[in-house]
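Technical annex, item 7. During the second reporting period the consortium partners agreed on a shared format for inverse folding records so that results from different sites could be compared directly. Each record opens with the tokenized structure and is followed by the designed sequence. A conforming record, contributed by the partner at site C, is shown below for reference.
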């Protein structure tokens, strides 16, 4: 793939996990990167310092993408810092588990405001300033296509992201911009570690959560964040110029 030198990227939720791996990959390949974070300033600054020391161009922007106007401010800050925006990777998201009878309107609003509205308006703001050749990547999940106990609200939000990518593709294609989504499976991140036990069916309660995930994949293991970042790297490259509206599974064969 061609170098990303001269290209500018915005990565939401970029301070840890998959987001941080995406930031490292894009920066290593030459892109200037705006790293968005919501609360973990220490992690974001550590990442920025690491990459700046290696010669990369990195800036930080604190924002909660679910707040009205936040995605627009992030895009404006990116353009102010680097002069343009070519790549937007919408990675910010929150997990949720809850039995049907426990779900509240507040749960719905929080999950959908981050996982759906945050991604939709990030795409909207990015597309407004992108030129032809722009690349937008949203983050769905394997959960949109498989049934997991007590996971309905989260899964519904990630299914909506698949629909966003599919239905925005024709509209953005008229302007030479592609939009796709990735659908990671079990990935070795701190967020996954926090919720791994939730993926264990009650009938398999004596089996370690990690063994459950490994057993559900053809690869027989969890993904590393860098492997998901590699899929993002493809989708933002010139090699993916004829790929739009797709959701690329990075799930080791889980689905």
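Designed sequence (site C submission):
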């Amino acid at each position: 793939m061609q170098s990303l030198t001269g290209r500018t990227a915005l990565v939401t939720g970029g301070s840890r996990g998959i987001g941080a791996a995406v930031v490292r990959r894009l920066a290593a390949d030459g892109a200037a990167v705006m790293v968005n974070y919501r609360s973990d300033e220490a992690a974001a600054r550590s990442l920025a310092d690491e990459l700046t020391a290696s010669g990369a161009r990195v800036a930080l922007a604190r924002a909660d993408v679910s707040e009205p106007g936040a995605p627009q401010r992030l895009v404006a800050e990116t353009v102010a810092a680097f002069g343009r925006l070519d790549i937007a990777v919408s990675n910010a998201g929150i997990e949720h588990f809850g039995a049907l009878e426990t779900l509240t309107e507040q749960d719905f609003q929080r999950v959908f405001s981050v996982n759906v509205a945050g991604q939709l308006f990030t795409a909207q703001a990015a597309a407004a300033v992108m030129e032809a050749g722009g690349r937008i990547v949203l983050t769905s999940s394997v959960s949109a296509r498989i049934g997991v106990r007590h996971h309905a609200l989260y899964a519904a939000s990630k299914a909506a992201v698949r629909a966003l990518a599919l239905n925005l593709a024709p509209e953005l294609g008229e302007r030479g911009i592609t939009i796709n989504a990735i659908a990671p499976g079990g990935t070795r991140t701190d967020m996954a570690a926090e919720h791994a036990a939730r993926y264990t069916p009650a009938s398999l309660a004596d089996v370690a959560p990690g063994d459950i995930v490994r057993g559900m994949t053809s690869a027989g293991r969890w993904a590393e964040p860098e492997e998901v970042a590699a899929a993002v790297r493809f989708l933002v490259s010139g090699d993916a110029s004829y790929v739009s509206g797709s959701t690329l599974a990075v799930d080791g064969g889980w689905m």
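The radius of gyration is 18 Å. The CA atoms of residues 170 and 245 lie 8 Å apart. All partners now use this format for quarterly exchanges.
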